[in-house]
Records
---
Amino acid sequence: MTNPLDPARLVYRITGADRIDFLQGLVSNDLARLKAGAVYTAFLSPQGKYLADFFLVGDGDGILLDVAEPLAAGLIQRLGMYKLRADVSIAATEITVTRGLGDIPEAAVADPRDAAMGWRCYDGASPDQDVDWVALRVSHGIPEAGIELIPNDSYILEMDFERLSGVDFRKGCYVGQEVTARMHLKTILKKGLRRVQIDGSAPIGTDITSGGKPAGTLFSQANGYALAYLRFDRIGPDMKAAEATLTPAD
């Protein structure tokens, strides 16, 4: 059974002479990075809010798009709306994503978000390793689609996309770029994703209070730690999420 905190992945193949230019004008990262390996990126609304995050991987005369299953249909539909007359085709595949830690197999690519997240493979050459991926991403402060990353609500800079190599500020225009660039250049972020220690547990989405005042929202939890979206001015030793007690971890 799929862990709801670690959703299944679907892989699509994007082909056509215009595939690079097409994606370059839509996503938050620079497609030039494909030459070095996998690219982690996001598709945003015109208002700069997160809609989906995914990996792009070069595959001969095509590009593989690796996305969380719950977001796949909506993402592919939106990408299709931007195709117009571009020479681009997007097709579903039967490819299964496998993951692991340690030495990167010849057929795999490094996870670009954090070296601790190991590698990803798309041709079945390397078996999936038995790893507690939820605990690993909580330990390294990595948000997941549909959990910490909430479509039409999250901003990628508040979700640490700069640290996770998911955004490029020099690449030029893309959907939502103006808002993202303004946040980067002119705004001191007041909220964002943080790792906390948790004593007890509470459902994902539980409100967090600090000194009795609203402070944020609790998300993924593992091994005594959790990811939380917090107001920075209310991070402190007296945070609560229902009956659970939270303290800063970093």
Note: The first strand starts at residue 9 and ends at 15.
---
Amino acid sequence: MTWPVRRGRVAVPSVAAGVLLALSLPPWGWWPLGLAGAGVLYWRLGGLGLRTRVWSGWLAGLGCYAIGLFWARAFNWYGAVVLILVEALFFAAAAALTPPVRGRAVSFVAACTLAEALRTTWPFGGLPLGGVFLGQAGGPLVQLARLGGPLLITAGVWAGGVAGATIVAWLLARRSRTAAPSLIGAAVIAMGLAASTAVGAVASDGGPPVGTVRVALVQGGGQRGLSKEQVPPAMVYDAQLSAMYAVASARPRPELVVWPEDVVALDRPLAGSSEAATLSRLARSLRTTLLVGLTEPASATTFRNEVVAWGPRGNIVGVFEKVHRVPFGEYVPFRSFFAHFADLSGVPTDAVPGDGTGLMRTPAGPLGLMVSFEIFYPGRSLESVRAGAELLTVPTNTSSYGTSQVPTQETAAAVVQTIETGRDLVQAAPTGFSAVVSQRGVVVERSDLGRRQELFATVALRRGMTPYDHWGDLPVLILAALALVLGWARQLRYS
């Protein structure tokens, strides 16, 4: 008779912890909920055996990703269920790596941070969407990105949860006049977190501008929640061309015009096509650098997802091919295997992976290119900034998502990217959100979803480097690994 009660005592707070973490994410996002969820999970794992910790962590993962990855149902509902079940295992792994009693605080933070580092890189290149760092884009912890990127923000969420849970437990114990936990560890963690956030806020943020660029972001508009098969490519292309009338009449004229990802979908090579001739004339008539996202066939079974830049003279001045493809969206790994379990007709051909740093030198300035999904990966912008990029540019396409969940998470990722690199960022999407974000993480302009719209802004070019630009993720990973080892050493010493 006691097993269901015990199960409830573990299951309910574990799921609640995950739900709180999910509700800190956009579009619902209120950043303190992330700290509250982390604190509830830390409290619940205390004193549990290995099997129960795994169960608790997995339930927390389900609570988090059933909401945070809810968007995946739009493509395939049973695939979304499998995705959520698998992603929740990373929470279970973190819970398993957390000692039950001694050394628990530092090990919990370290284990959760390392689990997230693994989740964002594996399998099939990882999945940063739904990550707890996205829920902090509007809170003070986002300043940690300048020091340690998304991973340090992630560690900050879990550390804040530990400190909060310990303080609440101390207050409750004092009220009930029972043995209270020590506040020394919580105080150290809280002070360390506050100090790190303060240092991040004043750390190098890309330096003063070395120049400015007048930019126009072109959003053709249209109905959201439709697949590529439901919207004729010519309709998307014509919408983009129609939106260019406002750009042509703008004064002063933009030096850089950005179109979204894959709004020019070709069934033949770009060279010699009528689209290439039209876009060349546009760039020449506006005397601007025109950046266009397009797809073109590479073979009978593959295609290229590219960003092509036409210069003010109408000639092609740069081509970038998307590096980080979306698994099961732009390509199907182990296609012959997965064909036995799912209908893969929605992804009939595979994108060819590109290479390179993402740096594109154009007449408008050296640009750091990230295409759509790549904005969630700090490594993509890090490579381009180290190579010399002075402005981040993101052609994207989230029109297949019927809700605002993915576009708002993408905007949150853009905020984190600007802070971690010290670069301004411009993003163009066919149905939104198109956005302009400053190097301090301020969303200067943002379009409406579904509308035809043009955004105009003057953005800065910068060459300074943030601490994260210099160090990357390595210091956070090393510190997390050391903390995990030290925490378990303390647990084993007294067990």
Note: The first helix runs from residue 2 to 23.
